[in-house]
Design a protein that fits this description.
Length: 521
Amino acid sequence: MKGVYTQPMEVDFLVVGCGVAGLQAAITLSGHGTILVVSKGDGCSTLAQGGVAVALDESADGGLHLEDTLRAGKGECDPEAVGLMVREGPQRIADLVAWGACFDREADGAFALAREAAHSRRRILRAGGDATGREIVRALRAEAETRADIHWLADHFVSELLVSEGRVVGAVLLPAGASGAGRARVVAARAVLLASGGAGQVYRRTSNPPTATGDGIAMAERAGAELRHMEFVQFHPTVLADPYPPFLLSEAMRGEGGVLCNERGEAFMARYHPQRELAPRDDVARAIWSEMAATGSAHVWLDMTQLPREALWRRFPTIAATCAQLGLDIASRPIPVAPSAHFMMGGVRVDPSGRTALPGLYATGEVACSGVHGANRLASNSLLEALVFGARAGGALAQDCGGHGPDGGAARAAFGRLAARRQGPVPRELVDETRGILQNVMWDQVGLVRNGQGMANALAWIEGALADFPYDPFDADATACLNLLTVARAITRAALGRTRGVGAHFRSDDDPVAGATARAS
Ligand code: SIN
């Protein structure tokens, strides 16, 4: 991918985000016009360890994968979207293999399939043991490099969508480290696809990289798009606990026999769920939370010591090496883990082809809510979602946006209107302080376990902070902070609005009958 642009830029399609969903969409769009893929960093996809769930033997497994996904989603999935994902997954994997993706295989050449929580059978493809996201992104990038109409702009922050007469006509880009209207670039496009990932940085501890600031969700809301299921934030049960960095220990470790023990050394999962360590992710995360509270500890232990050292290093090379660098030997001692914010099941409301209700705006991957995850995502369904719905979104852009070119005049006029609303400069101390307080407020009041009073207090603080926060779409740090506040408000409002707990939205003030049902399901 190549191409250096100077203002004014006009492209047919602007794709925001360079992870699996964005790259898959760009490749599908190739041949239908110029495509500019913009990214501010590497994103979350490259960090994905566990794998990609797929019903390769569709006749034997398609129905079961659908059932497992719906059951994990606790009644909140959109069955039509789940059906599409399960049915179209095998073809997307075949494409990836044709583009050079190397998935791990058994000695006989068959795919090596892993099992993770809440899957009724082994169906998870992996690469490099625990480096699946990295390999998929590598293969997609290599394929995108072969397409002359896909261009790439790294290290650029997309700060705002440009809207003219109810239609998205482009976006504002800021080069990394730049601020000021003079450094901003206007991109006019026939359509914009958000594939910008999640918002884990809303919380104090998260498995997500620092770039996961919910930019796409917040921009879309400001532009007038609708959000959905924002109350459903998935906490991954096993992330390295304080004082270590929040590095993910894949669910596949429990799939290979890892056991969770509390501070007293007791294996506790049997007391919480018949599937024990392989219960749905929200159940495991809450069980850990309860044990931490009961034992007064800031973590539980993930014990892998029953597996031979050599097998552990072969199966989980990235995890074993990262832990070793931190002085933790996964083969000889249990590892301290605690739940951390991991994945947004909600996001910008889209149809099964990534269309939002706003003309010219599409969304796919974690930034979008297609309804496949419901209240609790099934492990390793996120890469599959990105592949399937990324391709579907690319197809929809190609189909919908043929009749007109990019409207540079409308984009520049919309940019002028934004510039007129600017209130900056925003003091750096305000950005840092607001972000730190927000992460604590969300962790304490709108986290894994919530209640009405705590969430109402959180909402009051967020709304006050938003009212006091100057608007400056030409300052990337300030806009990322504004985006975090905006996403936090959407999560908190949605969580307050859903009075009954379900899946990842667990309310300690739910009535006893509903609470017992949620705990038992
Ligand atoms: C994991 O490997 O546990 C994370 C994969 C996922 O979030 O599905």
